[in-house]
C-alpha cells in the first residue's frame, strides 16, 4: 500500500487504528474505506494512565513540514495559532468530550460519522471533524506547492471541469462564497444509489467524477456517502486573518498558486480508486455467489420433487 | 409582497402607476431602476481608536471600512440583480439570490446595530442600565452579572461564525438570549424578536487582538457596551 508521501512517521507508541476499522454499519461508512487508508497516519496512541487504567487519546499531529516552511505565504505566526492553538484545542476538547462515552476507543473517522448522526449533530462532531479537517488541510499543502497537477488527476480535471483553469475558477468561487465559516473541497464522487436495496449497476469509471463542494463549519465529505475527499482549503477567518485580514480572495488565490500539494491530491485519488475497485470486486464476488446460490436453489428442488413423486 | 420593501416609495409609486402603454411602462420601469435605494455604510459615532484598549483601532477600522463595507456593496449588488430578475420574471434567479441577500443584508443590519451597541468609556460605555431595562434584566435573568455570564457562555460555545443577542420578544414581553449563525439577523429566530444588543463573534471581530481566545474578547467587551442604546430600543419597543 502506497502511503501519502508527505506523512510523518508516527511515534512508536502509536498504532494505526484504521487498520482495525471495517466499514459496515451505515451508508456513511462505506466511503470511509478510502479515507482511513490515506489518512492512516492518523494514529491513536495508547497511554498508560497509572498502572491499571488504559485510555485512548487522539494526539495533535504536526504538519508534514516545519511551521515556518510556508513563509511568507502562510506565516509561522499563523501556524503557531492555527495549528498550535486552534487545532490543539479541537484535539484536547475532543478527548475530554469522548472520555468514558461510547465514542471512546473509536477511530477518528468512525467518531465523525457516528457524531454526525445523519445531520442531527452530536456535541463531539465539531471537534472530531475539525481535527480530521485540519490534518487533511496541512497535508494538502507543501512548501513550493501550486502549479499544475499531472497524469490521471489532470486528465480527470480536464474531463470534469473543461480545463484546469476552469477548475481553479470554480474552486476559488466555492471557497470565496462559503458564507461564514467552513471549507471548500475537491472530492471524487461515486455515482451510486443509497436508497434501500437499490441495485447499483456495475459502475464504470465514467460514473465517477470530480466534484467541488463547500461545507459549513466542521462538516466534511466523510459524512456524505460516496464522496472521497482529495483537497481542501480552510476558509475560517483564523486561517488567513493574521496574514490577509479581510482579503479572503487573496488567500484563496495564493493557496491555489503556491501551496497546493498536487502530489498529495494525486495520491489520495489513487487511494480512493483502489478502495473503490476493491469494494466493487467484493460486491461482484457477492453478486456472483448470490446468483450461484439462487441458480442452485432453483435447480435442486426440481429433481427432489421427481424423487418424491417417484417414491410415492 | 416582500419585494415592496426593496423599492423606495418613490420608485414603487412610479412602477405601480397604471400606464396604459406597456412599452412605455417597460422603459419607465428600467429608467426607474436607477432609483433603487442604495444602502451606504453608516458612520460611527466615535473614532476607530476610541474603544481601546478593549477593541483596537485597527480592528475597528478593518471591521467598519472593509467588512461592513463589503456587506453593503454586495447587498446593493444583489438587490440590483434581484430587481432585474423580478423585472424579467426570472424566478430561478430571484430565488437563487436569496442566500446573498440574507447574508449581505443580514451583515449590514447586524453591523449597523453593533456599532450603536458600543460606546467609549468616557461616553458611558460599560455603564449598567438602571432604568426599566435594568429591571427587566433582573427579573428575567436574576442580575446583570448572570445575563453577561449567559451571553458569554453562549457566545463562546457558538461554532463557526455568528452573533449572540439580547433580544426582546415583543409578543411574550420577555427578554431572550439567542445566537444566530453567520450573518442571520435576530428576526430569523422569531418574527417577534427585536435586537437590543448584538455581539459579533466572527473571528474578524477580535482575531488581530485576542487571537484564538474568544472568551477574553467577550469578557472585555462589556466595558464598552452602550446600554443607553439598548434601553432606548427597549423603551420604544415594549411600550
Ligand atoms: Fe482552521
Ligand atoms: Fe463583523
Automatic annotation (TrEMBL), chain A:
Its cofactor is Fe cation. One of its GO terms (cellular component) is chloroplast nucleoid. It is found in: Plastid, Chloroplast. Residues 149-268 form the Manganese/iron superoxide dismutase C-terminal domain. GO terms for biological process: response to light stimulus. Keywords: Chloroplast, Iron, Metal-binding, Oxidoreductase, Plastid. InterPro entries: Mn/Fe_SOD (IPR001189), Mn/Fe_SOD_C (IPR019832), Mn/Fe_SOD_N (IPR019831), Mn/Fe_SOD_N_sf (IPR036324), SOD_C_sf (IPR036314). It is an enzyme of class 1 (oxidoreductase). It catalyses: 2 superoxide + 2 H(+) = H2O2 + O2. GO terms for molecular function: metal ion binding; superoxide dismutase activity. Residues 57-141 form the Manganese/iron superoxide dismutase N-terminal domain. Its EC number is 1.15.1.1. Residues 276-295 have a biased composition (Basic and acidic residues). Its main location: plastid. Residues 275-312 are annotated as: Disordered. Belongs to the iron/manganese superoxide dismutase family. This is superoxide dismutase. It comes from Cicer arietinum.
From TrEMBL, chain B:
Its cofactor is Mn(2+). Residues 39-119 form the Manganese/iron superoxide dismutase N-terminal domain. Residues 131-232 form the Manganese/iron superoxide dismutase C-terminal domain. InterPro entries: Fe/Mn_Superoxide_Dismutase (IPR050265), Mn/Fe_SOD (IPR001189), Mn/Fe_SOD_BS (IPR019833), Mn/Fe_SOD_C (IPR019832), Mn/Fe_SOD_N (IPR019831), Mn/Fe_SOD_N_sf (IPR036324), SOD_C_sf (IPR036314). PANTHER family: SUPEROXIDE DISMUTASE 2, SUPEROXIDE DISMUTASE [MN], MITOCHONDRIAL. Belongs to the iron/manganese superoxide dismutase family. This is Superoxide dismutase. The gene is LOC101514373.
Amino acid at each position: 500500500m502506497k502511503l501519502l508521501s508527505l506523512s510523518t512517521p508516527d511515534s512508536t507508541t502509536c498504532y494505526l487504528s484504521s487498520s482495525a476499522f471495517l466499514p459496515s454499519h451505515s451508508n456513511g461508512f462505506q466511503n470511509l474505506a478510502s479515507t482511513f487508508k490515506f489518512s492512516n497516519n492518523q494514529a491513536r496512541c495508547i497511554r498508560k494512565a497509572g498502572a491499571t487504567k488504559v485510555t485512548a487519546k487522539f494526539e495533535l499531529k504536526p504538519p508534514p513540514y516545519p511551521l515556518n516552511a510556508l513563509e511568507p505565504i502562510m506565516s509561522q505566526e499563523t501556524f503557531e495559532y492555527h495549528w498550535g492553538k486552534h487545532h490543539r484545542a479541537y484535539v484536547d476538547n475532543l478527548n475530554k468530550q469522548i472520555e468514558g462515552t461510547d465514542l471512546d476507543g473509536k477511530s477518528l473517522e468512525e467518531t465523525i460519522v457516528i457524531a454526525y448522526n445523519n445531520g442531527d449533530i452530536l456535541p463531539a462532531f465539531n471537534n472530531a471533524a475539525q481535527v480530521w479537517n485540519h490534518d487533511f488541510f496541512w497535508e494538502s499543502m507543501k512548501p513550493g506547492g501550486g502549479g499544475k497537477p499531472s497524469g490521471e488527476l489532470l486528465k480527470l480535471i480536464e474531463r470534469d471541469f473543461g480545463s484546469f483553469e476552469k477548475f481553479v475558477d470554480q474552486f476559488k468561487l466555492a471557497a470565496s462564497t462559503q458564507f461564514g465559516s467552513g471549507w471548500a473541497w475537491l472530492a471524487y464522487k461515486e455515482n451510486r444509489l443509497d436508497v434501500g436495496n437499490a441495485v447499483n449497476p456495475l459502475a464504470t469509471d465514467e460514473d465517477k467524477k470530480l466534484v467541488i463542494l463547500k461545507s459549513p463549519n466542521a462538516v466534511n465529505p466523510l459524512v456524505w456517502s460516496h464522496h472521497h475527499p482529495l483537497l481542501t482549503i480552510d476558509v475560517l477567518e483564523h486561517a488567513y486573518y493574521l496574514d490577509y485580514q479581510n482579503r479572503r480572495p487573496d488567500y484563496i488565490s495564493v493557496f491555489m498558486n503556491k501551496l497546493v500539494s498536487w502530489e498529495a491530491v494525486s495520491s489520495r485519488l489513487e487511494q480512493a480508486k483502489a478502495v473503490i475497485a476493491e469494494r466493487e470486486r467484493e460486491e461482484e464476488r457477492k453478486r456472483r455467489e448470490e446468483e450461484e446460490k439462487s441458480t442452485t436453489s432453483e435447480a435442486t428442488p426440481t429433481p427432489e420433487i421427481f424423487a418424491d413423486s417417484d417414491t410415492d | 409582497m416582500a419585494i415592496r420593501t426593496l423599492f423606495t416609495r418613490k420608485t414603487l409609486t412610479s412602477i405601480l402607476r397604471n400606464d396604459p402603454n406597456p412599452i412605455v411602462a417597460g422603459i419607465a420601469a428600467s429608467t426607474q431602476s436607477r432609483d433603487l435605494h442604495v444602502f451606504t455604510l453608516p458612520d460611527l459615532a466615535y473614532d476607530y481608536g476610541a474603544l481601546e484598549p478593549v477593541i483596537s483601532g485597527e480592528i475597528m477600522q478593518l471591521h467598519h471600512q472593509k467588512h461592513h463595507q463589503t456587506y453593503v456593496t454586495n447587498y446593493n449588488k444583489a438587490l440590483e440583480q434581484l430587481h432585474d430578475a423580478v423585472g424579467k420574471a426570472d424566478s430561478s434567479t430571484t430565488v437563487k439570490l436569496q442566500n446573498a441577500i440574507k447574508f449581505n443584508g443580514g451583515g449590514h443590519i447586524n453591523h449597523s446595530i453593533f456599532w450603536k451597541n458600543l460606546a467609549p468609556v468616557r461616553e458611558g460605555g460599560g455603564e449598567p442600565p438602571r432604568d426599566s431595562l435594568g429591571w427587566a434584566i433582573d427579573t428575567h435573568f436574576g442580575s446583570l452579572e448572570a445575563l453577561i455570564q449567559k451571553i458569554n457562555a453562549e457566545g463562546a460555545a457558538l461554532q463557526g461564525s455568528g452573533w449572540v443577542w439580547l433580544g426582546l420578544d415583543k409578543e411574550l414581553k420577555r427578554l431572550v438570549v439567542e445566537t444566530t449563525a453567520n450573518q442571520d439577523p435576530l428576526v430569523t429566530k422569531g418574527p417577534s424578536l427585536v435586537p437590543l444588543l448584538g455581539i459579533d463573534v466572527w473571528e474578524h471581530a477580535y482575531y488581530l487582538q485576542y487571537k484564538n481566545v474568544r472568551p477574553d474578547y467577550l469578557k472585555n467587551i462589556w466595558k464598552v457596551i452602550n446600554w443607553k442604546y439598548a434601553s432606548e430600543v427597549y423603551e420604544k419597543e415594549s411600550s
